[in-house]
Amino acid sequence: MRRVAFTLIELLVVIAIIAILIGLLLPAVQKVRAAAARLKCQNNLKQIGLSLHNYHDATGTFPPGSAGAAFANTPGNTNPDTPLWTANMGTSWAGFILPYVEQETVYRKLDLNLMNYGWWQTGSASAVGTAMNQFYPSVFICPSNPVPVIYRNFILQNSYVAIAGASVDPGYSPPRQGDTRAFGPVALNGVMIVNGKIRIADVTDGTTNVIVIGEQSDWGIDVAPPAGYPSKVACRASGHQSQWGGSGGWVGTRSANIATNTQATNTTTITDPLGTRTACHIGNYDYAGVETNAPNTPIRSAHASGSLIVFGDGSVRFLTEGIDTTLFQYLAIRDSGQVKTIPGN
């Protein structure tokens, strides 16, 4: 009589073969998904790069990396040059380019004439924003990002960050940067600077040689977290604000240093090597981002071996984590006067 059933050994062999095939296919599937996510991320940044130039065409300047709503002399100060402050929060670069990423309807909901408009209209952590509640346009979200980008169920945190410049500044002493006390420097030598109105003509290194937007789309690591806290940190420039929040509390001068009590500006200063994850601290864990060094949160991504970067000409390039740190810093400066040769580009 013919046997129609499998023996136990035959069944185990079939199962083993299937498991091996799955094991061989799974990495390939993961690579395809990672490639698709990276392509979507790259397309997002291309759209953002184009929007920066559309903004420049409309206004004559690039958008500020972060803006305060108004300038005023510090009380008791009679010198018109020192200091100044932005007592009221405006919006970030991402808010300014909304009309150029097909979000003009939302942008028009912001009343830019109101005092402190950014604080209560853009969805900062201490106040429910009336204009940006649960507003999550996909162009600002890198699909490769493993860090949650929605905080308190109503505000968007950043996957992409404006680059305000670098902590080094060839030819300038002191360097053009704001003094943020415990929070690290905020550069003023890049393109996307706080309260900036930088023109293409100001980018004397050439727009093809200056970086303006980078990724913050992976976890950071706190190497010495307090007891009871995880080592993984959101570590991004939005801090406890949203992707849309600008700067507030800025104090300084028109042409020199700026000091501030604010912890987050939605900009970063290139201080650490590309891909650094350990220059992050937990700050206040109630917030979706780092509190204590948000202006210096490193550029990093979940893509293998590097990050996607928008250059001043609107192009998007992939820079590897092995790039020389000094070169990376020079790339962030609009007028360094330095030779900038990017390996592989």
Could you list some keywords that capture this structure?
alpha+beta, four-stranded antiparallel β-sheet, six-stranded mixed β-sheet, single chain
Provide structural commentary.
The protein is of the alpha+beta class and 345 residues long. The protein has one domain (8-331). The chain has helices at 8-59, 93-96, 104-107, 117-121, 325-331; strands at residues 66-73, 84-92, 150-151, 155-156, 160-166, 177-178, 186-187, 211-217, 220-221, 232-233, 250-252, 258-260, 267-270, 300-301, 306-311, 316-320. Strands 5, 8, 13, 14, 15 and 16 form a six-stranded mixed sheet that branches. A four-stranded antiparallel sheet has the order 1-2-11-12. A hairpin with a 4-residue loop joins strand 15 (306-311) and strand 16 (316-320).
Helix content: 10-25%
Strand content bin: 15-25%
How large is the radius of gyration? 23 Å
Distance between the termini: 71 Å
Q: How many separate helices?
A: 5
How would you classify the helix and strand content by structural class?
alpha+beta
Order of helices and strands: HEEHHHEEEEEEEEEEEEEEH
Overall, the morphology is globular
Mean pLDDT: 79
Q: Total domains, how many?
A: 1
| Beta strand count | 16
The parts where pLDDT drops under 50 for at least 5 residues are 69-86, 249-262, 284-291
Report the biggest beta sheet as strand number plus sense, adding barrel if it closes.
6 strands, mixed
Q: Summed up, what is this model?
A:
Helices cover about 20% and strands about 20% of the residues.
